[in-house]
Amino acid sequence: TTRCLRDGTGTFKVIWENMISLKELKGDFEVYVRHNFLKDRYENSLKLLSEFVKEFNDDERFSLYFRPVYSFSQKENEVSQITDNICSRQDGLSMQRDLDSRYLQASKFKRGVASFNQTLPYPTPSWCESDKKGYLVFGADGKVFKCDSYIDDGDKHVGVLMENGIIKYNERIDIWKHEDFFDNEKNSRCFKCKMLPICQGGCTRSRIEVKYGCFWNEPDLRKIMIEHHVRDLELNSEQNSNCYGEG
Question: Is the entire prediction scored with pTM above 0.85?
Fold first, then answer.
């Protein structure tokens, strides 16, 4: 529905069959499948989770994780077509934690899963991949970006991949230098916040555009911890019922 070819046909079947072909290969590699969901697709997400476990649960190289669809302003704003179906921040986080918890309970292998499916906040070295020095996103036209949400906005590129394989950077690369975040004067708000060890300043894109990138806050964390505990109790109860029968 949301990931179509130019002729309007879907791509799910092709991607799924490619994953099965990957599974048939021998070798040491890891595949992380990210499923982005909209608020009316919860049942579809559960179905995908079930099919993924059925097909890939015997192969520790494959992991699944869930994220809500986010709305970022872009020049080609196709997201406007699904705006009404994008979860609120609270609903998206709640659904994400529920789906991730279900997958963790069903997953046979835990290797490589925790970094994506952590259902409770934990100390982290960086908020996302864009904070890492070696992380770059390449557009089909050779333009280079630090954030994949800018991929269709050429004005936000940080450089160009030249024909000789060398990247020619522009001045925009400087605003992505994570060392600048540790300037206490620029980011005093963050350094006074007890959430800093968890979020490391949050989304760099947001900090660049609106001066802060907050994602976690204390009320949210309290709610998450309660939901996590309740969800664990429910899942354990479901498993016990399946193992021993009702009553």
Answer: no
